[in-house]
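Board notes (copied after class):
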Amino acid sequence: MGSDPVSQVYEHFLLLDFEATCEEGRKIQPIQEIIEFPVIQIESSSFKECEQFHCYVRPTKRPFLTTFCTHLTGIECVDESENLSTVLEMFHKWLLHRNLIDLNGERTCPWILVTCGDWDLGTQLPSESEYKGLAIKKYFTEWINLKKAFAEALGYFPNSMSVMLRDLQIEPIGRLHSGIDDVRNMCSILKALALRGHIFSPTAKISKAISSTFPQRVSQKQLFRRKKGLW
C-alpha cells in the first residue's frame, strides 16, 4: 500500500447514497420514494472532501414515514422538505455552481458518481422518476459501484459496506443507514482502495437518460419486482 493515492482518470468523484421510504417485511406501495439525497465531492488528487450537497426529500405518494423507516434511517420528519423534482433541480444547479457541468448539462471535466451498489442509480432513481414523470439527466446514467471496485481491488465481492469497512480496517463513522454518514464512510473506502493502487473506472450504466416529463404508467408486476432499497 502506497502513502499517496494513485493517479486517477477522474478529477472528481461524487459519492451518493439515497435513503428511501420503507416498511418492515414487505414492499412499500405504490413505490419507494427517496427521502435523503446526500452527495460528497472528492478531489482525486488528494481524496479529500471539497464540497457536499445534502437535502432531505418529501415523499408525495405516501407523504409520511413509517416507524420502521424512522428507526432505520434516523429521519423523523420530511414534511417541510422539497419534493424530488425540486431537489433534482437544486442538485443540477449545485453542479453548475461547482463548475462540474455547463449550461447544457454536459460535464466540464472528468467526474463520475459513486454508489454502494447499483440500487441508487440503477433502480431507485429510474423507477421513481419514471413513475412520477421526471427527467433523468445524462450524468446519472453511468457510475462506479464501490462494491465492484472493492472486488476488483481485493479479489472478492463484499456483501455490504460494513464488510468493506471491516476488511479495510476503517473505523465506521456515524449511523448505519444515515445517508450522509454512509457517504462519509464510502469516502474512506474510496481513498483506501486508491491507496492500494486501484484505478477507478465505470462499473454500471443505464442505456439512456429519461427525458419524458409526462407520467408513465407502471404495472403492479413491475412495482412488485423492484428491489427493496436496503443495504
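Comment from the instructor: Residues 179-195 form the longest helix (17 residues). Helices lie at 67-73, 84-97, 119-132, 146-154, 161-167, 179-195, 220-225.
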